[in-house]
Amino acid sequence: MDQLKHAGKRKTSFFVTMKAVFWSFFGVRKKSDHEAAQLNPVHVLIAGVLGALIFIATLVVIVKLVVAK
Q1: Which pLDDT does position 49 carry in this prediction?
Q2: Which contacts of 36-42 are long-range, i.e. CB under 8 A and separated by 24 or more positions?
Q3: pLDDT at res. 60
Q4: HEC profile for 22-50?
Q5: pLDDT per position as a tens digit, 8-60
Q6: φ, ψ of residue 5 in degrees (nearest 5)
Q7: How far apart are CA 11 and CA 22, in angstroms?
Q8: Radius of gyration, CA atoms only, the chain
Q9: Cβ neighbours of residue 11 closer than 8 Å, sequence gap 6 or more
Q10: Is there a contact between 47 and 16 (Cβ–Cβ < 8 Å)?
């Protein structure tokens, strides 16, 4: 329960969280980034959903372009 209280007080910006989630889609991340990261779980959830939506939208656009030809 203590971890949830401290999660909202973490200082990591949303951009840093987006960057971490982006690299996690590829499965790579620097060890120093992993050790120094204090990611907010809410930011991670939002960034993951946004990343998945962007990925799906990109695939849909690519498929429509290929099928249209």
Answers
A1: 94
A2: 37/12, 38/10, 38/11, 38/12, 39/10, 39/12, 40/7, 40/8, 40/10, 40/12, 41/7, 42/7, 42/8
A3: 97
A4: HHHHHCCCCHHHHHHCCCCHHHHHHHHHH
A5: 555 678 888 888 888 788 777 666 666 666 878 888 899 999 999 999 999 99
A6: -65, -40
A7: 19
A8: 16
A9: 38
A10: no
Residue at token pair 């007080």: 9
| Residue 50 tokens, joined | 């946004």
Which tokens belong to 25? 């889609």
> How many CB atoms lie under 10 A from the CB of residue 28?
7
Give the residue among 37, 46, 32, 41 at the shortest CA–CA distance from 3: 41
pTM over 0.70: no
